[in-house]
Amino acid sequence: MKIIHPYARQILVKGERKLYKFRSFDPLHPEYISRIFTHCELYFPSPKQLNDPFEFKLRISPPVLLSEADKYKAEQEAHAFLLRNGTPHHEAIPRAKFARDPVFMEEMAAKLTETLPQEWDPYRICSFSSIWDSLLLWSHYSDSHRGICLVFDANYDDFGLAYQVQYSKDYPSISYFDRDTDKLIELMALTKASAWSYECEFRLLSKEPWYEPLLPVHDHVYTFPKERLIGVILGSEIIPENESYIRGLMSGFGGKLELLRARRSRNTYSLELTSV
Question: Which of 38, 93, 108, 176 is most buried, judged by most C-beta within 10 A?
């Protein structure tokens, strides 16, 4: 069945259309890697589990109320907004008049900005990169090049639904009366600080409880079709014991997997990819 994703922006991976996910070996929790191969499972954390405290932040902008025309426009927008959200017409008329008060609107915008992230707890995110050869990604997410990088095929309706993250020095901002759900998700889930731009990140999004046409995530886990995992890249500093462990998992995987190795270049600060 073809999945039609509900969110507003979809930018498919270009070129070979592969997604890369870096993983470290955790001796206390070997299942973090093993279940990817034995059960085809990927973990989708909630927004509050992400490693950046600036994630899922958004600034709600109050309307500009400098003139009588501004105030009239804000009242009309407030009235329309209230009606869209189920307020009866006879109640919406007096309530909309509060939108003419700049102090009231400033306070409401600030309060909404503070509480809005709580509404996104049910959402689930799985992060990937469009590149495999970033020295920083290997260092930060693959135990200083001692881990692995998983290679997924993005030519299908599940991994092909990955959205490209945008990077900015400012929080995304949205008008107080323009709180469309798709736009909010797009801005909050797909905008990160410029400092993270080296990640070239793409994200899969879902929600729990799950419903179609979202990816079926249950208890933070998405079980992907086996053929989506097409390769494994060994880190340049992987120890023999962990390499043997990965080879064993791959031999029992049953799908067609390519085993590759990242090697340090002799002449430049870069990685080279070789077959194993």
Answer: 176
